[in-house]
């Protein structure tokens, strides 16, 4: 006889047969560098740790004798990829990403209490954006586009979500 499983039930405590069989339930899982969190917190502690380490890298970069353009290149090519690797899969720790952004502005921007974070990013030489929030959105959007290209059903779901969002405008 098949038992009916209720989704609101704690799956760790659920007995699957008459002998009391319980299945190991994993709520956090790390695969290929991404941290998947399947419980209610949706916390991605691996991503948070990466961002904190990257923030320390940027703070050390402040004292390195390089031109602003060279420091910007280090941030773009080393720090941001290290900080944001696998960020597509979990919720972002907003304070960690804000600390990273503040550290980047401290390194590349002017030393003033009246400076604007967005102003510093806009005034940087070159054509690449170094704002971690922008890179986070780009990575998630690229993942969405890749999934839509590979899986037709996902594209249908995305179209439905956009249509529903348009209705709410």
Question: Would you kindly provide a written description of the structure presented here, covering whatever features stand out?
Answer:
The chain has 169 residues and is mostly helical. The protein has one domain (43-167). Helix content is 54%, strand content 5%. Strands 1-2 form a two-stranded antiparallel sheet. It is globular and about 70 Å long. The mean pLDDT is 83.
Tell me the series of helices and strands, N- to C-terminal.
Answer: EEHHHHHH
Low-pLDDT ranges:
none
- The average pLDDT score comes to 83
Largest β-sheet summary: 2 strands, antiparallel
Rounded to the nearest angstrom, the distance between the terminal CA atoms is 49 Å
Shape: globular
Question: If helices are DSSP runs of H or I spanning 4 or more residues, what is the number of helices?
Answer: 6
Strand order of the largest sheet: 1-2
Which range best describes the helical content: under 10%, 10-25%, 25-40%, 40-55%, 55-70% or over 70%? Answer: 40-55%
Beta-strand fraction estimate: under 5%
Number of strands: 2
When the domains are counted, the total is 1
**Rg value:** 21 Å
Task: Explain the layout of strands and helices.
Layout: E1 28-31, E2 34-37, H1 45-61, H2 68-84, H3 94-108, H4 117-123, H5 132-150, H6 152-167
Antiparallel strand pairs: 1-2
Helix pairs in contact: 1-2, 1-3, 5-6
